[in-house]
Amino acid sequence: MTTTKPNHIGRKIARIRELRGMKQETLAEELGISQQSVSTLEKSETVDDEKLERVAQVLGVTKEAIENFSEERVINFFNNFNDNSFSNSQGTFAAYNCTFNPIDKLVESYEENKKLYERLVQAKKDKVAYLEELLKKK
Fold first, then answer.
1. Cα 82 to chain center, whole Å?
2. Of 36, 94, 116, 138, whose Cβ has the fewest other Cβ atoms within 10 Å?
C-alpha cells in the first residue's frame, strides 16, 4: 500500500470524484479542461483556492469538504449509517445531524417557487398590457 500525505488535495479530489461515481472525463468536461489535466490535478499535492473552489462546485461539495476529507471519516460514516446513531464521536459527518425538519424546508421551497411563479405571471401580464397600449397608439 502506498502512503500519501494526509493533506494531498489531488488524492482527496480523486477519491471524492470516485465516490460520486464520476469519471475523470466527466470532471474534465465540467471544468472545461482535458482529461489529462484532471489526471495531473489529482496527482497534485496542492491546488490553488480558485481552482479548488471550482472543482468543489462541480463535485457538489464545499472546498472545505475536500480539504477536510478523510477515508477514515467515510468508513466510519458508513459503518455507523445503519445503526441510525449518526453520532459524531466516531468522526462521522456532522452535516447528517439534521437540525431542521426536511418537510418544512420542502414547504418553504414550494412557497418560494409559488411566489416566483406569481411574479413571473404578473410580469407577463404587465408586458402584454404594455404591448396592447403600444398597438392602440398606432
1. 24
2. 138
- pTM of the complete model: 0.52
Q: What is the mean pLDDT of the chain?
A: 81
Alpha helices, H only, the chain: 9-19, 24-31, 35-43, 49-59, 63-68, 71-81, 102-137
Tens-digit pLDDT profile for residues 48-69: 999 999 999 999 888 888 888 8
Same domain, 62 and 108: no
* 106 within domain boundaries: yes
Q: What is the rounded distance in angstroms from the CA atom of residue 138 to the CA atom of residue 136? A: 5
Nine-digit cell string for 8 = 494531498
Calpha distance 73→105 (Å, rounded): 27
* Distance (Å, whole) CA 14 – CA 16: 6
